[in-house]
Amino acid sequence: MGIDVLWNLKDGISIVLCGEAGQGIQTVEYILTHALKLSGYNVFSTKEFMSRIRGGTNSTSIRVSSNRVAAPVDRIDILIPFSKGAVDHLKNRISSETVVVGEEKIFEDEYRGDNSVNIPFSQIAAEAGGKIYTNTVAAAVLLGFFEVDLQMFYDYLEHQFSSKGDEVVQNNIEAAKHGYEACEELLEGKKLQIPKDDSIKDDLLVSGTETVAIGAIAGGCNFTSFYPMSPSTGVSTFLSKNAEEFGIVAEQVQDEISAINMAIGAWYAGARAIVSTSGGGVALMSEGISLAGILETPVVIHLAQRPGPATGLPTRTEQGDLLFALFAGHGDFPRIMLSPGTIEEAFYLSQNAFNLADKYQVPVILLTDQFLVDSNYNITTLKLDDLDVEKHIIETEEDYKRYKITENGISPRGVPGYGKGLVCADSDEHDEAGYITEDFDVRISMVQKRLNKLEVMKEDIIPPELVGSEDYKNLIIAWGSTYAAIKEAMENIDNDDLSMLHFKQVYPLHPDTAEKLEKAEKLILIENNATGQFGQLLKMNFCIDTHDKILKYNGLAFSVEEIENKLRSMLDQED
Questions:
Q1: How far apart are CA 300 and CA 297, in angstroms?
Q2: Do 435 and 476 lie in a common domain?
Q3: Which of 254, 346, 398, 554 could form a disulfide with 340 if both were Cys (CB 3.0 to 4.6 A apart)?
């Protein structure tokens, strides 16, 4: 057995679980990541899965590290195959140092290396109470590689399965005990030498889905309407699950058209609403987005991107909806578009989206993607002290004019029943009072009034983050979820001439953007799409072209290694 290769790993280890949908791989991931976090290890996990309920080949990648990590790697140190085909599925990531652990009968026809360990998961589970406990055995075997508190793991299992009764709890504990012992016997007392930090035990282990939803709650969200669409559905179900506790009205409706119109109606009535969907859902919502534009009614739209066109790859990831979101809705009207680079930013930007929508009376689109919402890692905290729910509703007077012409384009916003004024709303062009008009001069005034908001919005534009030295020669341009992989790749390269400008607000763009771009000798665009959409946006706004592009559009997120290798190649060409 070539298991000795694992003892050279000091800073971190990459574990991949692979099998069919329905085998409970996510259960193993959940148990393993939470138990390791409680033991003092930094953890990160992400998924790639097929669009099916049963069968196929899915994998979950888990990184356990002495450092905080938030990006996937290609390297596999330990592979657990749960079904035939798993080794073939991951063959491009398996190296001579990958250790395959599991039931030999599953992988013996596919694996040709020397580093394999036969552990009969299902047999151990059957002896503990039934094959249903195989996932607990697998998790316990993996935990056996680490210095974990076994009693803590038992306590965790008791907490996790207490609702299923004492027998299930005891069987899980028994399965964990035997799985852990099997690994102990195999390792003969050795453990992976990855440093622990007891303070990590108190960290939060959260997903992008959860932080978007929690951010919405922190932003005062009290209404959500949605039609389920992967990978956005988790945000809506989280809000629905916690609706009673936080005073949220949650409506699952018949289609996305109903969802956006309900949300607009809720804002009109004084609520703070969010819709969560993917690209195909926004396609149906386009007319509603335009309706919000002319009504000057706030609305928050969470767009969790996946590959298109049409249904595309419904369970994979891509940054392919940027330009679509920018131009969704007919006619000219302003909007704000935010795109978090990390799970933490997903919380803060989601919270801020509600304040921006309320202040400027425009649609605010929060762009995430499948990779971000389905990834998990530990974070220290989510700070709530400095966050305010900013409301801009006024009590109306009898002569109230909903669309009063103002210098900055923002009219005082009233809601029905709060004050003496009539709050008109109409999808046709209207005058200051809200009544339909076809007066050409009024039309010009109203269009210009709405567009004037773009100028005043500048005071709230989030500046792009510069990662690296200010004295850069080569500048990476990035937005959204590519942040962590690029940042780690840059740290590995350690080149003072290389920096990254990462955009968390992708529209309107910060006024200083052009100056930062023009300072670089070379601009390198990195995007998870086929056409460099953000690069096109930069060219439209500033007439600046990027020099090199690193684009990926096979449905998977960037790994640290592929960005690092491509950047090194580009930098070597300069030398």
A1: 10
A2: no
A3: 346
